Amino acid sequence: MTASSRKQTMRERCGTLKNYWYAAARAETLKDKPVSVVILETRIALWRKKDGTAQALRDRCSHRNVRLSEGKVQNNCLKCPYHGWTFDAEGQCVNVPSEGPDGKAFAGRKVEDFPVKEVYGLIWVWMGGEVAPDKEPFPMPHYDEKGWNRYYMETDFNNGVTALVENFMDVPHTVFVHEGWFRDRKRLKVDSTVERTEDSVLVTYHAQDAIGFTEKVLNPTGLPMTHTDKFYMPNNTRVDYIYGDNQRGFVITSTCTPVSEFETRVFTLICYKFGLANHLFKTFLPWYTRQVIQQDVDIMENQGKALKETEASFKSTPADTLHVFIESLREYAESNNEGEAPKPMVREVAFWI
Ligand code: FES
Ligand SMILES: [Fe+2]
Description:
This protein is of the alpha+beta class. The protein folds into two domains: about 5-125, Rieske [2Fe-2S] iron-sulphur domain (Rieske Iron-sulfur Protein), CATH 2.102.10; about 150-350, Naphthalene 1,2-dioxygenase Alpha Subunit, Chain A, domain 1 (Alpha-Beta Complex), CATH 3.90.380.10. It contains six helices and 19 strands. Helix 2 (about 160-170) packs antiparallel against helix 6. It starts with 9 loop residues before the first helix and ends with a strand. Fe (ii) ion (FE2) binds near residues 177 and 296.
């Protein structure tokens, strides 16, 4: 197969979607051994130098293309397990054992180097080229804030990023997919405002909302709970359930890393602040959220299979406004920002759950 007959990788055909920081791993999972991850169909070796700083190189030796992640970290370099070619943190080849003990200029043998940041307990990789941008990774809310407890869930889904971010913001599915777990069907009308900006979709629900299991414990006095769902380009969602005076609540933030068209790794940060009741949730909440997310894993796998077989053709109702807005922003970026950009707009949307 020649290079030109090979299908382009997702990274090559995703337009401006590559120009972002993507979460590659939870920081605590990268220790002294390299770890191999795939982002936008591009395999990357993550490893740490002696001083602990995280590094990312293309996980493919420039010699015979073996995975470098299965080699060793030695003297702040990554050494290929096949013939021992050695690459420094910038991906420069600094030693080829078969050519003698001394360093030479090994021009042309470099492997690609990816900018890396470690923040909010995640290792982020910039997919837009070897020069680090002045942009920052998506700010994960309440990560280190006093009074807030937190934990991450890492979940592999068999569906693409667009379908997943829509699922994480989709209220009508909760009374079916999570029936009895999260929100019960009450045949209630919900009024909402859906806004599209140039790089986000923001939804505010005006109805009094409730999360099934928690109400009696968390909200015995029946404070009004406000619920907002937000999408930020290209792959982040943030769901806030805030009680009364804005001092207590849950915030669920997901950053979705595209592995391939129908494989996505999602890092979900769950933060909660309930004062003295925080300790009640420490073991219960991780278990509960794992059950709920598994229900989404299953329905997303179902949809992913259908979309893989035959291209998407969706019919939409007003309740699907956020879906349509998210698709418009992501498709525009995928087209390399060609033609007219989706216009900022606000819609009032009512639906029943
Ligand atoms: S394949 Fe890496 S050194 Fe030969
Ligand atoms: Fe769900």
